[in-house]
Amino acid sequence: MYIKELKICNYKNFYREKIEITPNINTIIGENGTGKTNLFYALRILLDGNYRAYFNEDSFSYELNAIKGNWIIISCVFKEIEEDFNTLVLNPDENRNAVYSFIFRPKKEIRMKLFEYSEKIKETTGEEKEEIVCELKSYIEKIDIKNDYEMIRTVDTIFNFLDENEYKAIVGDFKNLVFPDSDIQDDKKNIGNRVNDVNDIINVTYIPAIRDVNNELTHDNNFFIKMVKEISKDIKEEKWSEIFEKFNDINDELNNIDEFNNFIKEIENVINDTVGDVYNSNVSFDINMPINTDNIIKYFSLKGKNEEKSFNLSNNSLGENNVVYLALKLKESQMERGHTKKFLNIILIEEPEAHLHKHLQQSLFEGIKNNKNYQIFLSTHSVHISESADIKSTIVLGKKDKYTEIYIPSRGLQEEEIKKITRFLDVTRLPILFAKNVILVEGDAELILIPVMLKIKYGIDINKYGISIISMDSCFFDLIAVLFDDLRIKKKCAILTDLDKDYTKEGKYKRRERLSFVRVKRMEKKFNDNRWVKVYSNDYTFEIEFYRENIDILKTLLDRKKYFKTIDKMNNELNSQQESIQYNRIIKICDKAGKGWLAMDLAEYIQKEKVEVKIPDYIIDAIIFIFSDSNYDNCIQRLLKIYSSNNDINFDDLISKKIVINDKFINFLIDRYEEIRKNDITEVIK
After folding, report:
1. Strand (E) positions, 290-415?
2. CA–CA separation, 497 and 473 (whole Å)
3. For 403, which DSSP code?
4. Which of 177, 284, 372, 554 is the most buried (most CB within 10 A)?
5. What is the pLDDT of residues 438-457, one digit of tens each?
6. Angle of helix 318-334 versus helix 223-232 axis, rounded to 10
7. Sheet holding 533-537: strands in order across?
8. 461: helix, coil or strand?
9. With contact defined as beta carbons under 8 Å apart, do 532 and 484 qualify?
């Protein structure tokens, strides 16, 4: 038995989302603020009977304009429910599948009132209708989330609440103030049959991200003590009786120690001297060792061990204690609670990488992954853990303006494609899955120089804008770019690649040119209808395209670094009006110095001296594509202000185009700024 599918409606980051889930381990990744923790809370609300959920206005989706009156719905599909056990609460169908749902909605009297108002509006016109509309809006505004809502759980079926039209038909159309009869909302065909929680058959263990292991294992009645108590139930009574007899003997011996008895007499003398004989109170010194199992067990503790010596866990490293804690939690999830066997053990692990080095992170993940008795949900920011994860079991959370979208990277891909992508996504390329948007480049030179160029010229720090530049080592562009699609990851991916045009007179690189042309055209055709992927190519190579536009900067660097003994001939060739001579010299310099090393030296030089370089057009086109993402709308004005400040231009003059700007990217930002401003004005007018 396992969860195959999870649907969430109107809960926190999640507006209308569906997640496909694998039976064993599911790795959840995403940038900060995408709702990884909220996804765990949604699972706990639905499945963990020991979790007491608290709802207020902040519990509803941030995408909702009107919160009150709306429903929160969390639903899952169970697959392969065992026939051997009593699972009547789930009422599985003939295929051993079941739907189980949690609904947080207004109580019946509230829903009936909304329907009554809705009917009155239909029956009236003019001023009377306007009055009823005002009354209804006022009534909705006064709904109290805490007192006017109810929680119900159902099985068997539920309406398609992810569909906007079905949601309006069952819950209500809040924009047009149309609400259905509460009988429709309570119909079993729409919401299923009411049941209790599934605590008897499902065990949920939640391991939060920030762990104070010492506190977790030492506070009263901590989970380790509860585990020991559970184990102690199997210890025979005779064994406990033997232990208690020994404690009684110890008590007797302690009470016969003269030093303790003399101490009590001294206390009695002080009392007598202070208040006199009339108000005197007798005291005795009583030493009691534990006389029942609970009192014994509360003194148990877990300690570290080094050879034959034991020590407090506080002397362990944070990483070691995290491993101990995770092991205990895994063991806790295995233990049966009460007399009912659990059908499904679910473990929710938040960021297990805390305080663990790379190899331990990967070892821990592999160990967790090998536990076949659990269905595991693990969130992480670690590229090392993600590297070990199968792309088929990876869930990517993507942050939009007011909500989070859920992406399944492997959806719709062939098994062979998935295998290749999994092998290719090593630790250096995994930022593809964590980024807001991605630029794929051919080699290290682009990887090094593009971020520096953008920072100096436009004030764009690609890390702050969530843009990852990934070096593909001249291959596999289309293999990785297929991840970006309406079916999979809805993020922009710009491919920067070379056409490798032959610049020699003798046709030395004709074959390379032909192969590159075929490769680029194949990619353009493949992604022609894909709004998330665009291919941007140059004529030659990045080095030729970049350095020919920045010859003087290259010459200055070569003179400073003294790469070569003589540079006269080199400079003459770099200044040549014949492309074949100039380009050939650029390639020779790159080969001699090393493309990556030369790029690093140049990056250091232009950053230190604040030298503005000319960025090739195909790179500008790619940046425009990336920044056409609406996620950057709130950054457009800031970028324009940075540019105007750096170039001593009045901001108002810049956006009103009173001055001529010969820069494709800045003109794009200006146009985008005007578009955003007009849309904002339109919204205000509405």
Report:
1. 304-306, 309-311, 344-350, 374-380, 394-399, 404-407
2. 11
3. S
4. 554
5. 999 998 899 999 999 999 99
6. 40
7. 467-471, 437-441, 493-497, 533-537
8. coil
9. yes
Neighbours of 2 (CB within 10 A): 17
Tokens representing 168 are 């309006």
The pLDDT, as a whole number, for residue 522 is 93
Place of tokens 């506080």: 314
SS3 content of the chain, % helix, strand, coil (to 5): 45, 15, 35
* Tokens 């530049």 belong to residue: 469
The per-type count for the chain, helices as H runs and strands as E runs, is 28, 18
pLDDT, tens digit, for every residue of 20-76? 999 888 989 888 888 899 999 999 999 998 888 889 999 999 899 889 999 999 999
* The pLDDT of residue 57: 93
Task: Report the alpha-carbon distance of residue 77 to residue 100 in Å, rounded.
Answer: 6
β-pairing verdict for 2-11 and 72-79? antiparallel
Closest CA to 101 of 162, 50, 31: 162
Is the four-CA dihedral 140, 144, 145, 151 of positive or negative sign? Answer: negative
Q: Which pair of tokens denotes residue 138?
A: 């006022």
Q: Average pLDDT, whole number, for the chain?
A: 84
Read off φ and ψ for residue 257, nearest 5 degrees.
-85, 120
The answer to whether residue 686 scores a pLDDT higher than 50 is: no
DSSP secondary structure letters along 212-271: -HHHHHHSTT-HHHHHHHHHHTTS-HHHHHHHHHHHHHHHHHHHT-HHHHHHHHHHHHHH
Largest separation between any pair of C-alpha atoms in the chain: 123
Cα–Cα distance for residue pair 647/674, rounded to 1 Å: 21
Write down the pTM of the prediction.
0.78
Check residue 615 and report its DSSP letter. Answer: P
Query: Cα dihedral sign for 631, 637, 641, 644?
Result: positive
pLDDT in tens, 551-570: 999 888 888 776 666 677 88
- What average pLDDT does this structure show over 353-365? 64
Most confident by average pLDDT, 228-242, 291-305, 488-502: 488-502
CB 360 within 8 A of CB 218: no
Of residues 327 and 246, more confidently modeled: 246
* Residues composing the chain: 686
657: phi then psi, degrees, rounded to nearest 5:
60, 35
